[in-house]
Each structure stands twice: as structure tokens, then as C-alpha cells.
Design a protein that fits this description.
Blueprint lengths: L1 H8 L10 E7 L2 E7 L5 H5 L4 H14 L6 E6 L1
Parallel strand pairs: 2-3
Antiparallel strand pairs: 1-2
């Protein structure tokens, strides 16, 4: 899951070396914490959160039916 998020996010940002993703399991679900350079925050969130929503949709779809739910948190 971490690799998928990196593949999606790194081409979007100006500082790809500052992309950090932490993955942990909480309450039977996978929680991915995404952290980017402060200047790139708007690019990852997008207008009205559309890019962030698209990232979450792709990640949940890739996890597949019947598996654990995945939550992607974008950290400040």
C-alpha cells in the first residue's frame, strides 16, 4: 500500500524527497499517514479535496473487496 501511495503522490509534488508515508494497523483497518512538504500540501489535497479523494478511492480499490479497509490521512 505504501508503494502505491508513493507512486501516486510523488509525481504530483515539487519536493518528492519530502514525501513520507507511515502505515499502521488500528482497530482492524490499515491507516496510512501521508506527509509532504508544506508547499506541496495544496497539490496533494486539490481543489475542494478532489485529489485527496481520488487518492483514497484508488487506494481503497486496490485493497480489494473482503480485505481490510484502508484510511489515508494527510498530515500537516
Amino acid at each position: 500500500m505504501k508503494k502505491l501511495i508513493e507512486t501516486i503522490v510523488k509525481p504530483l509534488v515539487d519536493h518528492p524527497d519530502d514525501v513520507r508515508i507511515g502505515v499502521e494497523e488500528r482497530q482492524g483497518r490499515l491507516v496510512c499517514s501521508l506527509s509532504v512538504h508544506p508547499e506541496d500540501m495544496g497539490k496533494v489535497i486539490g481543489k475542494q479535496g478532489r485529489v485527496a479523494s481520488a487518492i483514497r478511492t484508488v487506494v481503497n480499490s486496490a485493497e480489494g473487496a473482503g480485505r481490510k479497509r484502508v484510511r489515508v490521512d494527510i498530515m500537516d
